[in-house]
Amino acid sequence: MNRLSLSVVVPAFDEEECIGACLDLLCTQLDCITEIIVVDNNSADGTRDIVRRRAADHPEIRVVTETQQGLVFARNAGMDAASGDLVARIDADTRVSDDWAATILDFFAADVDQHWAAACGRGEAYELPYGDAAARIKARWSPLARRSPSTPGVRDVPVLYGSNMILRRETWKLIREDVSLRRDVFEDVDMGLCVQKSGGRNAFLPSLTVGVSPRRMESGMRSFVRYMACLPRTLRLHRRHALAAAALVLYVPGVSVLHACRLVMIRAYDSDSGSFSARHLLRPRTDRGMP
């Protein structure tokens, strides 16, 4: 049986601080990864130069340019350009684990009946003062996940997680014209719901864990609430009105309160020294923009 091929798509807009580390970790797994496609989405910093230096040593890396601004456009350009049987999409600040690519290939190779159209895993924010405690609680108690009786340990979920998700190339072709191009919705939630609408199923693999940047967690309250409001908007787009109402009334207020509680702690924490200081609260910060 021929081995499945895996493409990895990395959209990038002004990511010079993290794209190098992301690519270095991917390049340690080139025995399992066929190609790495970095989509430059009008970067004005050193992102493209960093990628080119990595590509000089690893021809599996190539750059695709997308001039229309926005994550959805960069994502689509990368997914369209991918040639692998499986197409993974991660963020430029994602740090994959050592067995990430092998885990993906093993899972889909074992799925000979193609029970699963797509898959995703967990994302744990790195360099946080309280570690991954919040991620573990969320993974255990999430009301959106239910265990699959056909694949022990795997959960059937309605949505995908953008920092760590994989689609069969046929699945992407099937939903390509249905995914939203709006920038005020969660594009990964939209993709997962489009997979379901097409008759496919999304698998959640607890063992497929990556590190993600806590940059969004450092955003001010107004910016964070504006970002989280994308969830009920996405659900309404797919006519999941009951879920949208629950997200608007329960989830968004709840996660906003959580964000308010952790914001002072995160901003007071210095990951380089591992210490807290009130003076860190005075450091200039720029809120993470909409994707």
From TrEMBL:
Keywords: Cell membrane, Glycosyltransferase, Membrane, Transferase. It is found in: Cell membrane. This is 4,4'-diaponeurosporenoate glycosyltransferase. The lineage of its organism: Bacteria, Bacillati, Actinomycetota, Actinomycetes, Mycobacteriales. Belongs to the glycosyltransferase 2 family. CrtQ subfamily. The keyword Membrane applies. Residues 9-42 form the 4Fe-4S ferredoxin-type domain. Catalyzes the glycosylation of 4,4'-diaponeurosporenoate, i.e. the esterification of glucose at the C1'' position with the carboxyl group of 4,4'-diaponeurosporenic acid, to form glycosyl-4,4'-diaponeurosporenoate. This is a step in the biosynthesis of staphyloxanthin, an orange pigment present in most staphylococci strains. InterPro entries: 4Fe4S_Fe-S-bd, Glyco_trans_2-like, Nucleotide-diphossugar_trans. Pathway: Carotenoid biosynthesis; staphyloxanthin biosynthesis; staphyloxanthin from farnesyl diphosphate: step 4/5. It comes from Rhodococcoides corynebacterioides. Pfam families: Glycos_transf_2 (PF00535).
